[in-house]
Amino acid sequence: MSSGTSTFVIRWINFLTMLLAVGVMGFGVWMSTHHDGCRKSLTLPVLGLGGLIFVVSIIGFLGALKKNSILLWIYLIILCFILVAILVFTVLAFIVTNNGSGHSVVGLRYKEYQLQDYSSWFLKQLNNTNNWKRLKSCLVKSEDCNNLSKKYKTLKQYKMAKLTPIEAGCCRPPSECGYPAINASYYDLSFHPTSSNNDCKLYKNSRAIKCYNCKSCKAGVAQYMKTEWRVVAIFNVALFIVLSMIYFVGCCARRNAARKSRSKV
Fold it and tell me: Rounded CA gap, 90 and 105, in Å?
């Protein structure tokens, strides 16, 4: 690749990623203005990601603009570390999300989930008291369970619904309990449960309690996290390929810049 082409490509790619970084940091600032603690907890990671993208981009942009081999060396070293980190995270994500799947229940269009089916890493994170306390607080604030009665006006609609893993695990008792549903958000708990599952005792119709302390709720969250992590892992594969191509172009730009600086001597 010619000197002009490689530096032109690196310059414009990094200019665009600088704009992206500003957008990411702006999003982080916007999140910090919310009183919702669940969103606020993501503020620092988002700002950190935006800051990292901006710093790397400006080093690459200046290196290509000035055709400075030292700056391009720094840019390539940082990019190499990012590629290794993405690769390691992606492999771990696929390993962690390899276990766990739902169980079909007769008469239901959605699946129920069991916590013991998931990886030991998920179990450790979800069984940690502080972690679950924070997650449970976010689940209660999300109003997902309380909105079920608004989404499904009749009992027939509710029984035909395809609930999400969190709705299936946190908003209702496990089907093995045998509690009759009165509507989408209320069960008749006067019936004696037909199962020894402790989740049957933990479930309450209260908006603040529901089945948030149940293992089925943790399993629903684990399934949600598994799905999200798989999406992130697939995105990372595509990102790794794109960054590898940028790394290759960057190597050409650095080599051409070094050649040019030697020719001046």
Answer: 33
Q: How is residue 117 annotated by DSSP?
A: G
Identify whether the C-beta of residue 103 lies closer than 8 Å to the C-beta of residue 114. Answer: yes
Core vs surface per residue 178-206: b (16+ CB within 10 A) or e? ebeeeebbebebeeebeeebebbebbeee
CB 140 within 8 A of CB 162: no
CA–CA distance, 177 with 220 (Å, rounded to integer): 17
pLDDT for 33: 77
CA distance 104 to 82: 41
Give me the residue label for tokens 């027939």: 156
What confidence tens digit (pLDDT) does each residue in 77-100 have? 999 999 999 999 999 988 888 888
Q: Per the structure block, which two tokens stand in for 100? A: 């766990």
Residues 116-174 pLDDT 10s? 999 888 889 899 999 898 888 888 888 889 889 889 989 889 989 999 999 999 999 99
Rounded to an integer, what distance in angstroms lies between the CA atom of residue 38 and that of residue 252? 44
Helix, strand or coil, per DSSP, at residue 6: helix
166 Cβ contact list (under 8 Å, min separation 6):
139, 144, 217, 220, 221, 224
Nearest to 220 by CA among 151, 142, 157, 150: 142
